[in-house]
Amino acid sequence: MKIALVGFMGSGKSTVGKLLSEHLRVPLIDTDAEIEKRTGMSIPEIFKKKGEEYFRELERLLIEELLSLPQQSVISTGGGLPTYFNNMELLNQKAFTVYLEADFEVLWQRISEDKNRPLVLLGKERVRELFEKRRPFYERAKLRVKTDVNSPEACVEEILSSLSFL
Ligand SMILES: Nc1ncnc2c1ncn2[C@@H]1O[C@H](COP(=O)(O)OP(=O)(O)O)[C@@H](O)[C@H]1O
Ligand SMILES: O=C(O)C1=C[C@@H](OP(=O)(O)O)[C@@H](O)[C@H](O)C1
Ligand SMILES: [Mg+2]
After folding, report:
1. What ipTM is given for this predicted complex?
2. 123 is in an annotated binding site
3. Nearest atom of ligand 2 to the alpha carbon of 117
4. What total of structural domains would you count in the chain?
5. How far is the CA of 110 from the centre of ligand 1 (A)?
6. What CATH code is carried by the domain that includes residue 90?
7. Based on the number of CB atoms within 10 Å of its own CB, is 11 exposed (0-12), middle (13-18) or buried (19 or more)?
8. Would you say residue 42 lies in a domain?
9. Which of 92, 115, 126, 143 is the most exposed place for a label (fewest CB within 10 A)?
């Protein structure tokens, strides 16, 4: 089975994904890291030189490819990925989707100082609007786990216990 983590920037997709893949002993693919590896550019560099639309196309091609592979994996998606094209539908068809949920103030605290997320430059209020607009996409996931009150390890435990009921 594939497990795909979705949620807003700073919700812990990369952190929880790494731990979860180690627990399950399956490969981890972080879509941002994979795009950086394949293009030889950082995410801020891609946004600056090629534009966001180009980045969204790369995400789309990558997620289609990853979901068509037969092997088990944990996929940590970028925060915008499920909100473009029909990516969320595709994720739900081909993977067990988990929404890592957190209060906006907590998310903002985690991301506001980080220079690796170009959208943070929009400022707090526009990022809050983005968060509200994206929430309905994330809410279509099969499982929701709160990452503002749970440690990354506790989030992994919750996901594993849900999987054991499947
Ligand atoms: N469950 C959690 N509890 C506390 N801090 C967390 C948790 N998950 C992630 N973090 C912290 O939040 C920041 C963003 O995490 P990251 O995994 O990069 O999020 P995402 O990939 O969803 O943008 C990191 O500094 C990380 O250490
Ligand atoms: O929310 C977004 O649109 C983005 C989230 C980032 O990933 P994280 O959610 O892992 O920060 C990264 O894909 C890029 O900066 C755009
Ligand atoms: Mg990430």
Report:
1. 0.98
2. no
3. 15
4. 1
5. 7
6. 3.40.50.300
7. buried
8. yes
9. 115
